[in-house]
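User: two proteins, same treatment. go.

Assistant:
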Amino acid sequence: MTKVKTSIYVDKELWNIFKKYALRRGIEVSKLIEELIKNEIIEYTLDAELLKLAGTEDFELDFEPIRPKEGLVSELVRVMRDERANNISRH
């Protein structure tokens, strides 16, 4: 891969925070910027492809939330996770 040197203007305080963040992650600033650019391009490309699949029509999701008949939702989710984990370990 060919690298290109570029210049950008960034708020000084923001840049210093970003450099410290990269240092804490143990990654070079240039590598982290490349990673962020790639993530943005992937997100943009994915959004564009999803729009192609969905068409140009605006649509809205319409649903009614389901309330548990008894107990807390967190308890219900825990039971479902445990059941799934048990099924996976059996196979």
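Protein 2:
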Amino acid sequence: MRKTQKRVIEYRVYDLPEPFPIIFIGGKQWHISDVRSNRLHFHNCLEVGICHTDSGIIEFENNPQPFRAGDVTVVSRNILHTTYSSPGESSLWAYLFMEPEHLIPPYLRQSLEEAELLDEIEQNICRIFPRTEYPQVYFFADRIAKNLENKPANYAADVRALCVSFMIELMRIRSGTTSAEHDANARNTLILAPALDFIQDNYSQQFRMEKLAELCRMSLTHFRRVFGEIMSCSPLEFVHRTRATAARNLLRGTNMSILEISERVGYMSISCFNRHFLRETGINPSEWRKNNTEVPRQNISVYPGWTLPENSKERGGAEVGHQI
């Protein structure tokens, strides 16, 4: 009997610029291969996908769901998934990666949180929205994508307003979700999600590893073992990695001094910050800022978070099959 190949879990980090944490990925080259990847992945932000052509399957953990042209997908951070097209097809997609909590104005976010649904969407949703059934979801997602792609005058303000409308629409739909559907989505959340969410929200603070273990309802020893198996690093290493990601955004997008940035991301001394930043990036903060103040145009596949699937095929002379 042929031995079943063990699936690989990947954690993909997307650097979202401050103070406008949203990026658009699209264009004729963004096709999804029909190769079923051996990798399930999750990421550090909300993913919204717009399927333009063809059909295929999205797997949320071991739960395959079909998609087709016109569908919008919404996947919260920390939910395992992978996407592949139907045999012989190569579906064309556009993607939005965002942090809604930092796109929505604070005074609006406070009123939205009273419904206790916004956090549910940000942390615990994995769903496909067909255009025919949810035209408003498609409308808002498509408008956001077109603004980010074409960058008309005042596009950033328009995107923020559209994000509010988009999240409200999802909240309305979510409020009508049955308890069975909610439980099914909840089961797709990684066992480490409480710790990962806590780190994402509190990386600039000082906290003990016991806190993370308690959030996941594990002993410290068991938590460290499980974390290492899934993340391929220790919890402390992951904290430093998260801080380095935040520091890169501040180095690139603000005029803050390196000392101010080191304090903002959670380090008690600049020497400690420099040491860990160098370990994570291979370069010190001042050199990184010098090299990345003007970010050159380049294919997004070189950034962390994007890979090509195994055995990707070529059709019409162009390589297809980005793994999302």
